[in-house]
Structure formats: structure tokens, C-alpha cells
Amino acid sequence: VPDELDFDEFYTAGFRRIVSQIYAMTGNLAEAEDSVQEAFARAWQRWDDVRRYGDPEAWIRTVAYRLCVSAWRKAVNRRAAHHRAAAAPELPGLSPDHLTLVSALRKISAEQRRAIVLYHLVGLTIAEIARETGSPEGTVKSHLNRGRKALAPLVSEFAEVGADGPRRSGTDVVGEW
Amino acid sequence: MPESFDSILEELAEAAASATVPPGLEAVRRRARERVVHRRMAVSALVLTLIGGSGGAWAAVSQHPRTNETVGPMGASSASARPNPATGASGLTASPSPSGAYALGSGTDPGIWMNGSVKDGYLIVFGDGVVALSAAGSFPLCYGRLLGVGPDSKGVMAGAPTTKQSLGDVACDDFGVTSGLSIYPVKNGAVLEVSVPVNGASAAYTRAYAQQQALYGGVTSSPMMQIPSGTWKSTDGNNRTLVIGADGSVSFSASVNTGRQYTGIGTIDAQFPTGARAVIDCASGNSKGTPCGVFLIEQDPQAWDGIVVYGSYGPETFIRTG
User: Fold this and answer.
1) Residue A139 to residues A146, A154, B69, B188: CA-CA distances in angstroms?
2) Neighbours of B202 (CB within 10 A)
3) Residue B209, phi then psi, degrees to nearest 5
4) What ipTM is given for this predicted complex?
5) CA atoms within 13 A on the CB side of A167
6) Which pLDDT band, with edges at 50, 70 and 90, does B104 fall under?
7) Does residue B87 register a pLDDT over 50?
8) Alpha-carbon distances, residue B55 vs A134, A137, B78, B151, B253 (angstroms)
């Protein structure tokens, strides 16, 4: 029973947040919802193990992301996702700024987008992103730098600061780049 | 955009969160239960396929186009140092059907462990008791086999031995010995230690490998639904090439240690939900025809047409060139 309570709280607290993060990485809300639900289902199956991980939410996010980008899964679910998306518009009422951002994010690679979302939205450090993505820190920095360069023409903030990127408040790891 | 990138990204994410209606907890649990049922159905279909070669059972599992060439798993001869796929329920692996086609296996995914951050520090424990280890200057992982683990043994659970086990059939130049190595769990299974015996002037030593959570059990890897046939090239600039045939044949060429070129050939001898294992005979660097290593090959979840090859330098991304 305690395990189920733990899982319930974890699920309730984290589902929307992780969906929003996966959506920012992939640009497909229906796919994000489905993959996060699948990730939680897998977590429930092995909750005894997952709950002992240092950061179960990172585990869910990683599983959901990988499910989302799986070519096979995309092929299988494309039709269902299309119907879901058609039935319910993804994000109604987006402002021009939001639309610009969505358009800009679509122009960079998946790896760059994932790194940028983990850094700017989730708030992870370079080292944490490296652990979560299974990439060397240098690769993460490269994805961030290249992503920002690609976004610079569309995001004035990046154009102003160039390849070094804007400095975040709090823990400042941008200087490591 | 007038607002900061961070804040507008956060607003976008909040909009997505607001538009999301979390399914009920029971829906998640039901989905988990359905996953178990589907996996069991896939296993049953696979078993039927393996036993009878029936085409009808293929509907439940992924399948590769059939060929007329039969490429069997590595021989089961005890004289061979090649890994022998387990056949018990705890380590079911896919085998070619009588016509030579491969099916997705349902065997336990391998556990992946790492010794610090050094390049030569990878260890993979397969469900059938094969233990692959990094070796300096080698591209494939060298390997041994847990002596105490038989096809029906419970000695390997979730990619790790549960008790101290000796390694036999060691094809691993790096250790200088072919017997006497052992592997055992410590720190409640979070760490595996490999004990290497005295070898001439070299004293005995142990090497510790920590569990890699992001990869452990393959749970975060994408499913690999078929043999990734084609020509694949590493993206690290080290000119490693892997050629995988639709029949499960594998060959590689690699440039290591200041340009020394070596090659090898082998076959995929076991498959797992998220990948496949290839056992390799090296053509140079070792005597030709001598078993020298294994690769673990998985689909790259971050690349549309890429694979991840676990060799002695750990996971490396390869992209298709042909």
C-alpha cells in the first residue's frame, strides 16, 4: 500500500509537468501525453526499482522522450495521434511570441531542442543533462551552442548574446561553455 | 520576442500543461497490465514460431524479411569460447527460424555497468551468462561466461549475477588470463566487482563497475524491431565501419591505436527487446578465426536512422551510409 501511495503522489505531482517538458522537446502534445502515460505505466510495473533512483522524474522524462522519438512508435501511432490532434487542437490561443518560439524550435535538431529544454525549462546543469541524455558534457554544450546559434535569427535574446547564450540566474553554468 | 527566452518557454510549457488532462491512475495501471499481457502474447507467439516455424504466429512479433541463408546462433560446443545463448525461460533469445529469418527476442535485456569514466571501463552482463568487458585498444568487447550459470539458472537477474561467479571461456587478451576471473555483486547489487587473479608479475586486482541507471535493463532504450541491416559508420571520426546483413551477418573494420587497422566478422547470435548481440571473430590483432569479442547493437533513440554500438569504448553512435 505505501508503494501505491508513493506512486500516486508521484504521478499526480509530475504528470502535467513532464508532459509539458516532452511537448517542448517534441512539439506534439498528443504524442507527449501518450508517451508520458506509457512511461508512468512502465514505472508502475517496476516501481520498487524506480522509486529508489535518485531522480524518478528524470527516469520518466527519459523514457517518455525516447518513446516519443522512436521511429517505430511514431509510425504505429501516427494515425491515432493525428486523430487525437484533429479532435482537440493542441494549444489554442497561443500568442505571437509563442508561435514564433514554436516555429523557431521546429527549425533546430531534436538533440539541440532537448538540450535547450532541459537547460532552460527544466533547469538542469550541463552535468545533469549529460547524465540524463547519456552524452558527454562537451556534446551537451555543443548542442546548446549550436541550437542557440540556429535560434539566434528568430530569438533576439540569443542574437544579442551570441553563441555564449544568456546567463541564467541562480546556478550559473553557462560560463562553462 | 520582447520577453526572455526562459520565460516564454515556460509559458509555452504551462499552456501545454493546462491543456493536458491526466488520465486516471487506474488507466495507467490498466495500461501497465496490458503491457504484461501483450509481452506474454509476444513470447508465446515467438515460442510457437521457434518450435514450429509457423508463419501465422509472426503476426504478434516483428519479423525481418526471410532469406534462404541459415545463420545459426553460435555453436553450443563446450570447446568453443563463443557465447552460447541461453534457452531457458529466464534468458530466452531469438533464433533464426528454419528459413533463416530472425524474430524479435524477449530475453532479458542486458545490464550495463561502467568503471568510473575511463574509456576501457564497460561491462555488460547478458541474461544467458555472457559477460562482456572492455579491453584497451579493442573495438569489440571481449567476453567470458559465468561458469555457474546454466540456461535455467537464476544466477543472473536483470543483467547482474546475484552471487559470486567464476568466468570461463575468457576471450580477453587484456586480462592476460583465460581463467580465474570472477564477478560478484557488492553494495546491495549497485556495484559489480571483477576480480582478476595473479598473472606472472602482475598482482591480483579488482575492478569495480557501477550500474548505469539510464541504460540499466534496457528499459529506457527504444525497441529494436528488426535487424538493422546496412552499412553503418561511426560519428566520432575514428573511421569505424559496421556492415550488418539481413541474414544477421556482421563485419567491421576499425582504426585503433594510432591507425592500426583491424577487421572482424561474425553473426548476431542473440536478440533482446532493445537490441542484438553480435559475436565476432577478429581477422587481425588476433589470429584469424579466433573469437575475440562481442558488440551490443541498439537502435539509437535520438537518431532517425542511427544505431548505438557498445564496443570497448562504450556506446558509440553509428549512422547509415548504405
Assistant:
1) 10, 23, 41, 33
2) 12
3) -125, 130
4) 0.78
5) 7
6) very low
7) no
8) 39, 47, 33, 27, 36
Cell 546462433 appears where? Answer: B73
Q: What are B32's three cell numbers?
A: 501497465
Asked if A34 has any chain B CB less than 8 Å from its own CB, the reply is no
Q: What residues 49-108 of chain A have any CB closer than 8 A to a CB of chain B?
A: 53-54, 59, 62-63, 65-67, 69-73, 90-94, 97-98, 100-102
C-alpha cell at A17: 509537468
Q: Rounded CA gap, B256 and B174, in Å?
A: 15
Residues B189-212 have pLDDT tens digits of 888 998 888 877 777 888 888 877
Question: Please, what is the end-to-end C-alpha distance for chain A in angstroms?
Answer: 46
CA distance A135 to chain B (A): 10
Q: How far is B26 from chain A (nearest CA, A)?
A: 10
* Residue B29 touches partner A, C-beta closer than 8 Å: yes
The Cα–Cα gap between B250 and B278 comes to 7
Please compute the mean of the pLDDT values over residues A52-77 and round it to a whole number.
73
Q: pLDDT tier at B70 (50, 70, 90 boundaries)?
A: very low
Q: Given its phi and psi angles, is residue B158 left (phi above 0), alpha (psi -120 to 50 degrees) or beta?
A: left
